[in-house]
Structures are given as C-alpha cells and as structure tokens.
Amino acid sequence: MDNLSVLEIFVRISEARNFTTVGNQLGISSSAISKAIARLEEKLRVRLFHRSTRIVTLTPEGTLFLKRCRRILDEIEAAKNELSESQLLPYGKLKVSIPSIGVLFMPQFVKFSQQYPDIELEIDSTDGLVDLIEEGFDAVIRIGELTDSRLMARVLGSYKRILVASPDYLLKAGTPEKPEDLIKHSCIMYRYKSTGKLDIWPTSQYSQVLQTEWPTRMVINTLEPLISCAENGLGIACIPDLAVYTRLNTGKLITVLDDFNHDVTTCRVLWPSGKYLSPKLRVFIDFMVENLFKN
Fold first, then answer.
1. What whole-number distance in Å separates Cα of residue 216 and Cα of residue 234?
2. Which segments does the entry list as coiled coil (predicted)?
3. CATH T-level fold of 161-263
4. Cα 224 from Cα 229, distance rounded (Å)
5. Which one of 3.30.70.100, 1.10.10.10, 3.40.50.12160, 3.40.190.10 gives the CATH number of domain 3-83?
6. What confidence tens digit (pLDDT) does each residue in 107-123 have?
7. What is the pTM of this model?
8. Which CATH number applies to 85-159+266-291?
C-alpha cells in the first residue's frame, strides 16, 4: 500500500471514526486497515488514534496530522484536475454548507443537479461557523457580512426580514403603528440553533435600532413552524420576505411596521481564496449567482 493510499485511509477513518466502515467503503478488510494505520503510526512515532471497540478518535497529534493530510490531498486533487482533460466537463463530489434558510433554495439546488447530473452535491445545513478547509467544504452559502479574509466571495442576492401577522390576529389585537406598540402584542420569536440566541427584530426609530425584548408568545427554531404560527393567528413574527411571498400576495399574511423596517440581508457564496477553482465549483458558483434568488 503506497504512502498516498495510507494518507487517504487515515483521513477517511478520521471522518468515519470506524475501521470497519472505511474497510467496507474501500473493499479492504478491517485488519488490513488497522495494520496500515499501525505502520503509519510506527513510521511517525506517534499515536494517531485512541481506539475502542466501537469508535476511534483522533489524538492531538492525529488532529494536527489530519490538517496536513487534507492539505496534501487537496493539492494532489487540484493538480489532477488541472491536468485532466476529462475535467473540462464538470463532475465529482461537491460539498456545500448552507444556512437554515437555505431550505428555501432547494428548488434551485434540484435544478442545478438536473443540469449537471455528473456532479454529486452534498449539502450540510447549519447556521454555525464552519471551517471550509479543515471540514472539507468546497463552498458555503452564508448571510451577513464577509469577515474572513481567507475567503473569496460573490453576492448571490439579498432579502428583507419583515414583520408579519394574519388578518384575523390584527383584527383582534389591532395593527401596531410604531415599534413600541409591540409591547401590547403577542410575538413569535425565532431562536438560532447555532448560538441559542433569539432573533433581534429589524425595528428602528429615529435611525436607532430598537432591541427591546418584546412579549414572547412562543419561541421556535425552524422556519416553517414560525410561518405556520403567524398564519394561524398566534401573533406577529419576523420572517424572510422570500419565504412568504405567496402568502402575502394571497392576503394570508400582512406586513406591519414597514416604515420602521430598513433591513437588507445579503447572501453570499464563499470559497477558499487559494483553492483551485475546479469546473464543478465554477459552474456551481455561476449557477447560484444567476439563479438562487429567482422566483
């Protein structure tokens, strides 16, 4: 077994945390996998894994070695891509991280997969921070401002977070005319899974953002139940406009406090600045820029 194969096996084990699983993936016996790792540890003179009967975990030395291995394998893969004529046609696995609001973009991801059937798209949904390089992502889609100078970015579009309620609720409770009126209303709040923090509503007055804790009727950490509660008259909710266009057009939901809402949320696709832009990544970026915010 050559050195490159051993490095690939090591990386796979660090991800699967199980020798047998990796052996099944590669068509190699678990004993052969175990011996290959043992020889690698002997050569390096360090223990790379803590072993138990059910799971293996990286040692501190193994974690450090994993970072190097991923960089080496990424560089080799990039070199192959540059030299391979077959890469003129985009294909292969593409790992992408999207925020929780990314569920609204699934129709566009489906269209991308239909247009590029040779690209295997792996989507991970989280609002938390991810390390593209260390976690093996080709690209991430994120909202907000770009803060990492190591990343390249292209703007995909923007949306507005709006306050909405059902006609029945507003008929019963009244329509707020200024942000302070929310004190008298039932508010349905969104909690971010990644941080545990409640969403701060985009209400402002006299150029000052108001961050008052409004009376909370219910707290939800996923989008669809939040929309459902507002639509069924539980109270006022803050929801991305692109998630409720149809409900607004049909009158199932009504916006409130528009004059006090100046929110604009930008969505970007990010990728490592030093990463070779493979055909599969290039067509993904171009497709998302062109299509992600199309209705």
1. 11
2. none
3. D-Maltodextrin-Binding Protein; domain 2 (3.40.190)
4. 9
5. 1.10.10.10
6. 999 999 999 999 999 99
7. 0.64
8. 3.40.190.10
